[in-house]
Write a structure and sequence with these properties.
The chain is mainly alpha-helical and 269 residues long. It contains twelve helices and no strands. It has helices at residues 2-5, 8-33, 37-57, 61-80, 84-108, 117-120, 129-148, 150-158, 160-165, 170-209, 215-240, 244-268. It is globular and about 55 Å long. Its main location: membrane.
Length: 269
Amino acid sequence: MNSVLSMEFMQNALMAGVLASLACGIIGSLVVVNRQVFMAGGVAHTAYGGVGLAFFLGLPVLPCAVGFTVLAALIMALASFGRSERSDGIIGIMWAAGMAFGIILLDLTPGYNVDLMSYLFGSLLAVPASDIWIMLLLDLFILAVVLFWYKDFLSLSFDMEFARSTGVPVRMLYVLMQVMTAVTVVMVIQVAGLILVIALLTIPPMLAELFTNSLWKTMVLATLASLFFCLCGLAVSYHLDLTSGASIIAVATTGYVVAWGCKTLWRRT
């Protein structure tokens, strides 16, 4: 076991798992409570355009994907805010356009030979050390924003109209939440991949909500649950030679089902 942990790629994977879990626990809770899962899905798939752009321009994937995805999230947030009847359509368009843009750019990239599996389904064991520092900075950004505006996010999450009537900058916070979702999505892509990123954003907070109604407690429990799922999934992936993203989500799904079953049985006794 010690020999495995001494390997640099495993140390990077563990650090990436910890940092991604922190972002998932905090932002995932806001996404679930505010019923923004579909929006997060749109942001996640739009991120593929950022991946394609990075390879096409020969730039580092993580910072390029962050910039592209944040821009897409801003467009979706500003276009959909206050337009509930059109928000699904706008998100759907951006979802498809981002994927198409990424695929076209990858097709146009000379000598392109990158394995897409690592971006579609995650490759936690392949996270480079340089990305760890970027993920740390992104986590610090998320923590600073949420701590500073926590009370306002709390009001926004449970009653938007009340929040607006008390002077909370609802529009700004909504846009900011989508920006943080974009940042988190790009981080989690390396853990679970584009296709499975929504699961890691939603399963831990939903599990946490089984045991608490408090937003900050949900964030804490979701972070711990996400970390547990990442570590267990990483172990399963390494020992059974499976895709890390799929292994993590399989563990997370199993964990949620078990927790839900235990909670249901507890209520009946």
